[in-house]
Amino acid sequence: MAELEEKTERLVRMLAENELDAVVLNAQHNFAWLTGGGSNGVDLSRENGVASLMIARDGRRTIFANNIEMPRMLAEQVSGSFDPVEFSWQNEKADGSIVLKHARQILRRDARIATDIPMFADTSVIEGKIAACRYRLTTEEQERFRDLGRDAGVAMGNLVGKLEQGDMEVEIAEKLRHELGKAGILSVVTLVAADERISHFRHPLPTTKRWQKTVLAVTCAKRHGLIASMSRIITIGEPDGELKRKTEAAAYVNAALLNATRPGATGGGLYKVAADAYAAHGFAEDINRHHQGGAAGYKTRDWVAHPQNAEIVQPDQAFAWNPSITGTKVEDTTIVTADGIEIVTPSPLFPQIESIIDGRSYLSPGVLTF
Known about the structure:
The chain is α+β, with helices and mostly antiparallel strands. The protein is 35% helix and 27% strand. The strands form five sheets. A six-stranded mixed sheet has the order 4-3-2-1-5-6, sandwiched between helices.
């Protein structure tokens, strides 16, 4: 309940600052955030959910849903923390503004109401302002993130024991999803590249290509709404010298980003840190071949570092950096803490590469010999 109260207070402050009377949240990632890991998702191919939450400027909380969904919402997702407003599914289908009409009955006819995604013709969409309320993780969220990252790292390690030379990329992807699923984790992004496809594509959706020597496995692992991203490389036999050299260079870029990801840093400043680190190791052009990652949380990335990005790093914010050099990649998810930066996706089975930046030691995942 303390987590919900803190998040309600953040939204109330945001409403006051923007002279709004209420905000309606319908996007699945925002529902998960406000409820501390609940879900209003049924159709996961859509951004919107089957129930909406409203926070009013006076702190009142309301949930809107049709008669199909409300019993489950109250029993499993929001308990007694929100006042329920239920309507028939037939009326919902007939009137796309039914939530807005009920909201204005609760507030007043001319209430200034905003939403997180486009829902009604006469309301403004303020997802950016809502996202800013999400950035700083609560104590409870940090613990859930650590648990998620640990379990995802274990699942990635368990995958190794299930692999066989000659597996198709799609089979490797399914094995990874299965290991994650054992821990109640959904892989919302699953990328697999075997051998030369690692060099050809930065976002390698799995195909029927069979793995012979080297494989890259990537997951954006979701549980309780939070998403932890990680990439790992596995080889049969010792990796060649070029793969080692490139992975060590990518690890250095990762370490430079970890070292610079501190409260007050900007997205643009972090991009420059990455660009300088690539150049220092002779791979200046690789920053142009893929984005470097950025802020994380209830989306795979809340924002990505780029030269014009003025977003500011917040205390207790999550980040997932993913520096890549043609043929290799390094990626973990982290939390900015009072003591520095904490990696929450450790993989005990995988070797680690140590990089020293400004006298500080940073660890990145290395290549695992299978």
